[in-house]
Amino acid sequence: MDIVFRKDQKEIMKYKSGSMGIQAVPGAGKTFIITNLVAKLLKKMKDGDQNGKILVLTYMNSAANNFKSRIRTILEDEGLDKGAFEVMTIHSLAMKIIRENTDIAMLSEESQIIDDYKKGILIQMAIDEYESLPANETRIRSFLKKELRDDQAQVDKWYREFTNITLNTIKLMKYADISVDRLEAYLDGGQATIMKIIGPIYKNYQAILDQEGYFDYDDILIRAYRILVENESVAEKYQARYAYVFEDECQDSNEIQGKIIDIISYEKSSRKKSKRNLVRVGDVNQSITGTFAGSDPKYFKEFCSQADHYYEMNMAGRSSRDILDLANFLVDQTRDHLEGIHIEPVESGQIYKGNPKTDKYMVAARSLKNQEEERDLVAKTIGYYQKSFPNFSIGVLSFSNYDIDDLGDFLDARDIKYDKLGADSKVRKKLIGDLKLALDFLLEPSREIFVDLVMDAFVARFDLDLSQEEIEYIATSLTKEDHEALLYDSPYREDWISKTRVRLDDSIRMSFSKKIDQAIGSIRSICDHNQADKLGLISYILTKLSLTSNELLLSKYIVFYLGNLLSYEWADLSRLALSLDKRYSRMFDGAIESIYDMGETDPLGGSVTLATIHKSKGMEWDAVIITGINKSDFPSSLDDYFRVDRKYLRSDFKYPEAFVNMDIDNILGENQGKTRASYEDDLKLGLIGERVRLLYVGITRAKSSLLLLNSKNKFIESLNRNMFRKDSSYLELLTSYIEERKNQWNGIEK
Predict the structure, then answer these.
(1) Tell me, what's the pLDDT at 109?
(2) Which of 179, 686, 691, 698 maximizes the CB count within 10 A of its CB?
């Protein structure tokens, strides 16, 4: 059956050559249009005997896999060559350029690419080296207010913030081509800002990279770009290889990425005005990762303004008309930060799926007194959806991981089942929890921990069709036994296994007997290895678990991290176990996300997913609840309280990022007389824009129902006090709009 394209897609499908920018609203079907256009161009190239491949660039491996699968399916149906295209991430492309030109890149066989997780560890090592000098011991701490410098909680908070600032600063300097030597020359001029500290740390970090033969992700992009710029013949090789280049999610692209893509898409032999066969797709209103990270939607906007062709895919069938109207209202009210692009419903009466329809107004907003009321309303709303709309998938979104954790604990206490999106997923963090259980048992070999270890780390991994009733029976049976006898008395263990398997399904009895015997034997052997070196013990425990392929990769990160902990802190077993606790294991979040890389799968009906709004991008749920829409997380004016208002720092140093931006401009000669105050205002304005775009992303995840919430008081456990959180101006604005629309629905307003 022929594909029927919407009216906002038809002109795009006529594309033949040149540069083309496509602005695609949330739910517009950009993956659909890219895959079909690529397939069409491949057919045209075959019919015209045109050489070259089509390159599709994405920013996540899961998106790359999705594109590959969809394009291959179309090509199979058309009987076309499935090898005529390539799909990869931008970093994979850069790595490909480096690997294919190792002589130019000066890359040795020992060279290793480190991800952001390992980069964080190396930055910490560089900070430790800086502070090891007596003159530097208290310098980082000196930015705190005097009365807080002995407050360990505040010190720890500032060090976490400082580490992130340092990571981002190094990224920005590398993108700006500011080398260690260039920075040192600037600092020798007497500029006394945070760069006085970050500079030596940058030098230490780069020295570690050079010594170990490491490259970080930023180095990869920069190295690839220089290869292309400095070697015309190499650039021409890639230009000849790729007849067309497509780039997805361009609103999150940075300048160096854009330059690499621009070079590769250049068509040297073309006589046309345009020298590029380059298609870039994105949505400037969904740019939520740029603040202080190098990416900026301005690069995509500039491309669109200069492209040979520009189109807007402004139709979306994801959300109900009521939700689209709310999103468009937010756009209209925030034109300083959101582009004036409305989402239109799809055309009715067509064969493609239309927008969801509801028999009542299913958009609401509430401002609540405290966090307890907010959590309670979330739980009640989930219960309402699951009872009244059992096929609804439910997404609960918050700004921060801490809010998600708090809400997760609340739902756990009420036996409400859910999963977390991203690294905090219970499934994805299972390995870390299992390893911690093993260490906890070695530290305290109690019956309770033994039962948890057996059930969570081993029985839960059995590839047996155990019912929940059978699992609970096994756990209950274990709690009644002498766990030491189970470990070391074979007849005792065999007797327990025989008694236990009687209560199991006939088809799994023999398999269960074998697996549970092996599991308890594995725990015994772990205990026997307790005297081994600590890192060897960790590695041994990991070999005793039935790990998935992703978990095997994650295990390498765990060993890497714990190895550094042992090297630099001389940690004991208790400290290693503590580092794996859910409160502290965020250290592994980057590794977990890169390994598991979220796929584009639709949540199941009746399921509940907790996620930060950042992680929700690309997802959709029938019903969405957004919590914590307050002024600090979603500011709207320079007078609001910002998370970057670090009031625990000295009054002259509340905005370290502003100092960084000012220093970078000074080094580049681009200051243009701007004051520190103007850099602080620019920082805040950038955050305001990003946060309103974040709220827009959250709203547009919803298909049929949407609930917007804030609680004005939140208890902060670490501070042992309540924090007052004013409603965001956006919540107030949207609440008024929602009430008006609800009244219209109910016929109150005539």
Answers:
(1) 64
(2) 698
Those residues whose C-beta lies under 8 Å from the C-beta of residue 459, and which sit 6 or more positions away, are 466, 471, 474, 516, 519
Q: pLDDT confidence of 420, banded at 50, 70, 90?
A: confident
Concatenate the DSSP letters of all residues of 648-677 into one string: TB-GGGS-HHHHHHHHHHHHHT--TT--HH
Amino acid type, 582: K
CB environment 258-289: b (16+ within 10 A), e (fewer): bbbbbbbbbbeeeeeeebbbbbbbbbbbbbbb
Q: How far apart are alpha carbons 294 and 117 in whole angstroms?
A: 18
**Exposed (0-12), middle (13-18) or buried (19+): which is 134, by Cβ within 10 Å?**
exposed
Count of CA atoms in the C-beta half-sphere (13 A) of 738:
22
Distance of CA 394 to the CA centre of its chain: 20
Q: Specify the residue for token string 């609340």.
A: 410
- N residues, the chain: 750
Give the pLDDT confidence of 529-551 residue by residue, as tens digits. Answer: 877 688 889 999 999 998 887 78
Contacts of 676 (CB under 8 A, 6+ apart): 658, 659, 662
Average pLDDT for 580-590? 69
φ, ψ dihedrals at 597, nearest 5°: 35, 100
DSSP code, position 144: B
CA 550, CA 665: separation in Å to the nearest integer? 42
Are the CB atoms for 315 and 280 separated by under 8 Å? no
Q: Is the pTM of this model over 0.85?
A: no
> Which residues face 54 on adjacent strands?
85, 244
| Residue 645 banded pLDDT, cuts 50, 70, 90 | confident
Over residues 73-95, the pLDDT tens digits come to 888 887 777 788 999 989 889 98
Question: How far is it, in rounded angstroms, from Cα 631 to Cα 714?
Answer: 13
Question: pLDDT tens across 179-208, in order?
Answer: 999 999 988 887 667 899 999 999 999 999
Task: Report helix, strand or coil for 395.
Answer: strand
> What is the band of 745 on the pLDDT scale with cuts at 50, 70, 90?
confident
Helices (H), 389-501: 401-413, 430-443, 447-452, 468-479, 483-488, 490-501
User: C-alpha 570: how far from its chain's center?
Assistant: 32
Q: Would you place residue 586 in the very low, low, confident or very high pLDDT band (cuts 50, 70, 90)?
A: low
Distance between CA atoms of 435 and 325, rounded to whole angstroms? 49
What is the sign, positive or negative, of the torsion defined by CA atoms of 299, 305, 309, 313? positive
Q: What is the CA radius of gyration of the chain?
A: 28
| CATH topology for the 322-422+598-750 domain | Rossmann fold (3.40.50)
**How do residues 251-292 score in pLDDT, each as one tens digit?**
988 889 999 999 999 876 554 555 789 999 999 999 987 665
pLDDT at 524 over 80: yes
Domain ranges of the chain: 7-98+221-315, 112-212, 322-422+598-750, 430-581
Which whole-number Å values give the CA distances from 31 to 82, 247, 313, 389, in the listed order?
A: 18, 11, 12, 29
Write out pLDDT tens, residues 99-150: 899 888 776 666 777 877 778 888 988 998 999 999 998 999 999 999 999 9
CATH fourth-level superfamily of 7-98+221-315 = P-loop containing nucleotide triphosphate hydrolases (3.40.50.300)
CB 447 within 8 A of CB 479: yes
What is the spatial distance between Cα 628 and Cα 403, in angstroms, rounded to a whole number? 8
Q: Do domains 7-98+221-315 and 322-422+598-750 have the same CATH topology?
A: yes
**3-class SS of residue 722:** strand
Q: What is the pLDDT of residues 426-464, one digit of tens each?
A: 777 888 889 999 999 999 999 999 999 999 999 998 988
